[in-house]
Amino acid sequence: MSAKNNPRRSAPLAASVSALLASAAAIAQDEAAAASSSSAAASGELEPVVIVIGERIQLDKIPGSGAVLDHSLLEESHVFTVNEALRKVPGVFTRDEEGFGLRPNIGIRGLNPTRSTKVLLLEDGIPLAYAPYGDNASYYHPPVERFDRIEILKGSGQIAFGPHTVGAVINYITPPVPDESAGQLAASFGNEDFREVHGSYGDSYGNTGFIAHGTYKETDGARENMNFRVYDLNLKVVHELTERQALTVRSSYYDEDSQVTYSGLTLAEWQDDPRQNPFENDHMYAYRWSTSATHRFELNPATTFLTNAYYTYFNRDWWRQSSNSGQRPNDRSDPACGGMANLNTACGNEGRVRQFWTAGIEPRVTVEHGLFGVDNVTEAGARYHEEDQYRIQANGDFPDSREPGTGPNAGIKEDSNRRVKATSAFVQNRFDFGRWTLTPGVRFESIDYDRVDNLLGTRGETSIDQWIPGIGGTFEATAGTVIFAGVHRGFSPPGVADIVTAQGGTVDLDAELSWNYELGVRSQPLDGVSLEATVFRLDFENQIVPASVAGGSGATLTSAGETLQQGFEFSGEVQSTAFVEWPVEAFARLSYTWIADAEYEGERFSNIPGFSTVKVTGNRLPYAPEHLIAGTVGVRTGFGLDLELEAVYTSSAYTDDLNTVDIVANGQRGEIPGYTVWNMAANYGLDACDCRLFVTAKNLTDKLYIADMSRGLIPGMPRLLQAGIEVKF
User: Fold this and answer.
1) Could you tell me which residue, 381 or 38, shows the higher pLDDT?
2) β-bridge partners, 48
3) Does residue 177 contact residue 210 with C-beta atoms inside 8 Å?
4) CA end-to-end span of the chain, whole Å?
5) What is the pTM of this model?
6) 3-728 domain in CATH 2.40.170.20?
7) What distance lies between CA 202 and its chain's CA centroid?
8) What count of Cα atoms within 13 Å lies in the side-chain half-sphere of residue 3?
9) What is the DSSP string of 657-679?
10) What is the tens place of the pLDDT at every residue in 4-15?
């Protein structure tokens, strides 16, 4: 059974797409995005992209901590997944799920990384999640090869985006359109039956340019009975309408066919074979199509308009034999399914069939002016956004069923529509007082929820309105050294199913709210040396947590009350050229995060079933390791050989609010031990062509470590060795 064959959908949302995209060529707005002027504007180019941070040289105006993983870093390291890339950034904790980055779990500053729900993911300034308001869970992520650079903003500048402002804004930037014919092609292979081909080609003709990118990736997984195959295609076309106007149209297609389980292992299974997978019939079929249009108009040197319009369709059919390691198997009440011995012969499965439609339009404007006799930059914008989810749970009679069955636990168990309409707006102004800047701002979110249960014949509606203020500032202490500080309201709305029940009632569940503070310094004391240090505090008056640790059915969310996360971040990079002139250029990078406190506050009791009377005040939050370290050393030789070695350390972490140390029998609670993973990359340029050979090793020592326990014990990625060639033309 596939959702794509079901005619139920939101007609108003689908019908609005053409109008939204057409309006992009008629409405104007600036390229300003979170806290800095756009790099495109600075270079005189008109390709419209919302820039979260911009080039590193622009960080002196950012009132908050930020990081840029640029093209050269991603290329030299040959990062295999987004998880691997983001581990290089302080404050970011990424957790593996299937081992190959299909569904990254990204956490910021001690926030739970599950499904990346506490971060806002953008691509060229456009929402990447299939339902950022109604279901901000990351079951889809494009391959990292698609991106030219990655920008991360954690400070008060987040209020220029939304809806999620509790963690960070992560903006993936696609490659720019080239001025002339240019392309690249890379092919690689490795163990675990790994094969990958990706490439791009672009050109410009008169006032029009384009770039196309494609990726094919296939491999076995981190465990037995797992594999995946992914196709990803992306096209960007830029047309200069006039000297001061440009229109960019993007279109992308993603297709995934993966034998990937949802469940981890019990403790006994882990001890027997940590890389086994009893659920050999679990399978994910997914595809995503998206299109967007961006219009940029420079009214004059001081005023720029930018308008984004976007539409995304995502289809996901995930057939699985369990929702967590405690289901042994999920149809055990069926007399024909007596236990694990019948798992792959007589037991049924669960088909989680989903369709998502998302559309929106967002005009922005940036104006430079001299109000109050000082230099000002005002940024303002508004967004209208719609989401429509169609959800079916179809239980099959057999392990490999792909249609609803007729057995005791089979048939259609869910048939529902979930809709969101959201309107938001923001304004912020940067005052420049010589070496000082001050950037106050405010955002407003208005969200309407609607849930229809087609089995029960019920409907429920509710809404949330929230003001989100923020203010940040910078002080240029010396040339190349900036002190920054900021405070802003953290906001993360609940999903549709969290706040509206299937029966049509509403849940007493407030939005997730916090006050976020940070104070830091960034410095480039020498050419080739960059440093940044930040202290932060996230003070939650209401943090939303799951009432069950396993997720799946029964994973009702609850307002958990007060929590506190605070700590210290440091990042630094040193090039040997800053001190000596060697034939060989050496470099070193270090990222360190100390989450000193990540704890429950107030009168708090456990959410674990059977422990509701146990007080957990002062206990550490789940999946909040105290220390995160990523260090890299490398050399760039003058004869084409480049080498780098990376070590990534993650300290131990609890997996429940009881701070259970010993791993329980079902593998879903206990302490995850700390571990270190080593990565290596080598590149060799060939003089005979514009190409290079490369060899990489991920988890060089084949370290066996526990990556996740939310649905049972899941191992991290095994050693992955790759070799390949990249040709530019």
Assistant:
1) 381
2) none
3) yes
4) 44
5) 0.91
6) yes
7) 27
8) 30
9) TT---SPPTTSSSSPBPPEEEEE
10) 444 344 444 444
